[in-house]
Specification:
3 strands, 3 helices, alpha+beta, three-stranded antiparallel β-sheet
């Protein structure tokens, strides 16, 4: 979701370098809960956002009148 960028061994969030290597990046996020919560909020917003009802398909297929005649 392009929130955390990786360049070489460095991980960055925006313009902030959060660590060289996964372990250091994890440590940074543990020591900086505000940034960690901000990232988590953005991830949740992207993944848990409700779909726009105008773009969704109907929930049940519509029957045409010809299929009802036996």
């Amino acid at each position: 979701h392009n929130l955390i960028n990786k360049a070489g061994t460095w991980y960055s969030y925006g313009s902030t370098r959060i660590g060289q290597g996964k372990d250091n990046a994890r440590g940074f996020l543990r020591e900086n809960p505000a940034i960690s919560e901000e990232i988590e909020g953005k991830i949740r917003e992207k993944l848990l956002s409700k779909p726009d009802p105008s773009n969704s398909a109907p929930t049940a297929p519509e029957e045409d009148s010809a299929s009802l005649v036996e």
